[in-house]
Amino acid sequence: MILQPLAGMALELGDMLFYLLTFAILMILVGKFAWGPVTAMMEKRREQVTYDLDHAADLNKKATELVAAKTQALQNSKNEAVEIIANAKTNGENHKQKLLNDADKEAAEIREKANVAAVKAKEDALKEARAQVADLSVTIAEKLIQKELSEADQSELIDSFIKGLEKS
Question: What stretches pass through the bilayer (predicted)?
């Protein structure tokens, strides 16, 4: 009976040595054929994830810069639009003022021409009235005096008659 426990133990020790040797061989085989490729695959995957994260960060940074640039460009466009509108208003006001000044100048010229024309018409009317008055005066004087008057007499008579008209 003493042999039996030793025999069972020997069997267990042999089995354990067999399992240990099989485990060591299996670990060497896994290390050589599986662990290396799995580790390389995991390293490659880690590098890809790191690259993707860096690339995503770069793209995010570029997108932020692009948004900032577009926002600045939009603000510049708004400022330019406001400036263009202000310039257009200023130019419109200047053009309006110029048109008003030109119209006032033209109206003043028309008034001046009308005044000159009125003075000329008045002078022409007075000359014609003088001529008619002179003719009438001569005719009346001839009838009254029953004789012909000389040029000098006619001028003197006309001038005295006009002076009388101007006084009245």
Answer: 16-35
Which pLDDT tens digits describe the chain residue by residue (168 residues)? 444 555 555 568 888 899 999 999 999 988 888 888 888 889 999 999 999 999 999 999 999 999 999 999 989 998 999 999 999 999 999 989 998 899 889 989 999 988 888 888 888 888 887 777 777 776 776 666 655 667 777 777 777 777 777 676
List Cβ<8 Å contacts ≥24 apart for 157-162.
158/130, 158/133, 158/134, 161/133, 161/134, 161/137, 162/130, 162/133
Tokens of 154: 């006619």
pTM over 0.85: no
- For the chain, the distance separating the N- and C-terminal CA atoms, rounded to the nearest angstrom, is 182
Query: Is residue 133 classed exposed, middle or buried when 0-12, 13-18 and 19+ CB atoms within 10 A define those classes?
Result: middle
User: Between the CA of residue 16 and those of 2, 3, 6, 153, what are the distances in Å?
Assistant: 21, 19, 15, 174
Q: What is the DSSP letter of 116?
A: H
| Angle between helices 151-167 and 36-145 in degrees, nearest 10 | 120
